[in-house]
């Protein structure tokens, strides 16, 4: 390593130390000693440790038992050596206190038994029982206690709380979950959105009310950052996103930011939506893998940090192909403050754990050396 590189690493590590966590500093576009890295769905079915826990407990049992949720969160973060731990929970947990029954059906994903289809249904949704979600906060407390001490390199691990975005949660509520994620047309959801303004507005308002209270519980318990998942926002045209969703999402983001934490706003198939998404005021925009990182960053503007954006399926590639993709993403970010390395969507079952660990090592190595700066 040249003297110049050693010197600049020393300066930035002092800065990183003073800010607690390089992950949080990167969210705020402050300088860091190297690019922070974590993965969407890092504690899931690809990991033998998770599957061992899953043998004895359902997904909802894991989510609702703070000791187990904390253990799963911690195990994944430590096994991978990442810079942030996302709390083990699910987007749909707030449905229960709102009065919507759901279950996870093997091979199908979430199913809501009585989908929300009318103004009367929306009126019946409760917003006064968010306290019932405190089990997530208790799990966050345990994770925060576990990671309270700085790591060997002086950096604190970031703790991420999360919730859904109004559009994506409304999609699950109205379709009933059977849309299977991103592959359907969201007909019922869009019908309400286009034709029943009163129901749609009330639904959005209720979702935002619940999510703000839920995010507050998570922040008070020790979450350093809140990520808002708008996984299926790519189903919307830019005009419909602006007309029916942007205002509500902006309100959610603004109100979470007043809790004193940065907000990461993430969606998939968002190339055309990125400029509008950045208008929410989110500190960080998550980029999927379809857009090159530098083009995505240009689209959200210099006022946002970005997170991404390796294709999760590239984790199945052979080592040299995978490493080249990691290098390309770091090169596209060019060492600019405000890049968090991640995937463009979640890790899928079957992903080789050793490749995930290799990516962490490469991100650390390549970004600390500055070899990916042009
Ligand atoms: O480390 C982690 O990221 C795990 C924590 C986590 C889960 N769900 C646990 C889970 C997180 C961050 C989520 C968020 C979530 N949940 C999203 C947004 C993220 C994304 O992928 O876009 C969404 C859309 C959901 C809703 C949901 N939950 C679906 C569609 C499914 C089925 C997915 C499938 O592949 O079967 C779930 C189930 C779920 N939530 C699993 C996990 C680990 C897998 C099921 C299991 O363990 O039985």
Automatic annotation (TrEMBL):
It catalyses: uroporphyrinogen III + 4 H(+) = coproporphyrinogen III + 4 CO2. Substrate binds at residues 41-45, 90, 172, 231, 345. The keyword Heme does not apply. The record marks 90 as: Transition state stabilizer. It holds the Pfam family URO-D. Residues 36-45, 160-176 form the Uroporphyrinogen decarboxylase (URO-D) domain. Its EC number is 4.1.1.37. One of its GO terms (molecular function) is uroporphyrinogen decarboxylase activity. It is found in: Cytoplasm. It is an enzyme of class 4 (lyase). Pathway: Porphyrin-containing compound metabolism; protoporphyrin-IX biosynthesis; coproporphyrinogen-III from 5-aminolevulinate: step 4/4. GO terms for biological process: protoporphyrinogen IX biosynthetic process. Belongs to the uroporphyrinogen decarboxylase family. Homodimer. This is Uroporphyrinogen decarboxylase. The gene is hemE.
């Amino acid at each position: 390593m040249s003297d110049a590189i050693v010197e600049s690493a020393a300066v930035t590590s002092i800065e990183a130390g003073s800010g607690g966590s390089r992950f949080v500093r990167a969210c705020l576009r402050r300088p860091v000693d190297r690019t922070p890295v974590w993965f969407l769905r890092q504690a899931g079915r690809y990991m033998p440790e998770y599957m061992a826990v899953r043998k004895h407990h359902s997904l909802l049992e894991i989510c609702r038992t703070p000791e187990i949720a904390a253990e799963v969160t911690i195990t994944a973060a430590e096994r991978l050596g990442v810079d942030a731990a996302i709390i083990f929970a699910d987007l749909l947990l707030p449905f229960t206190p709102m009065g919507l029954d759901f279950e996870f059906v093997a091979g199908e994903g979430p199913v809501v038994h009585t989908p929300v289809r009318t103004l009367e249904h929306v009126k019946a949704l409760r917003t006064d029982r968010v306290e019932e979600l405190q089990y997530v906060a208790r799990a966050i407390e345990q994770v925060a206690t576990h990671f309270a001490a700085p790591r060997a390199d002086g950096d604190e691990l970031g703790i991420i709380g999360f919730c859904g975005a109004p559009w994506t949660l409304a999609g699950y509520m109205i379709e009933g979950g059977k849309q299977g994620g991103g592959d359907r047309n969201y007909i019922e959801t869009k019908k309400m959105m286009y034709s029943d303004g009163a129901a749609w507005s009330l639904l959005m308002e209720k979702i935002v009310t619940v999510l703000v209270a839920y995010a507050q519980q998570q922040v008070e318990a020790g979450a350093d950052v809140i990520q808002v998942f708008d996984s299926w926002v790519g189903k919307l045209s830019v005009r419909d996103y602006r007309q029916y969703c942007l205002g509500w999402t902006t309100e959610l983001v603004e109100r979470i930011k007043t809790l004193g934490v940065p907000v990461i706003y993430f969606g998939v198939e968002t190339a055309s939506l990125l400029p509008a998404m950045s208008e929410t005021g989110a500190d960080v925009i998550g980029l999927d893998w379809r857009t090159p990182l530098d083009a995505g960053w240009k689209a959200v503007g210099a006022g946002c940090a970005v997170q991404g954006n390796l294709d999760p399926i590239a984790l199945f590639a052979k080592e040299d192909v995978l490493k080249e993709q990691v290098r390309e993403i770091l090169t596209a970010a060019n060492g600019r403050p405000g890049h968090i390395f991640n995937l463009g969507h979640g890790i899928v079952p079957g992903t080789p754990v050793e490749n995930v660990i290799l990516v962490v090592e490469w991100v650390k190595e390549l970004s600390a050396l500055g070899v990916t700066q042009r």
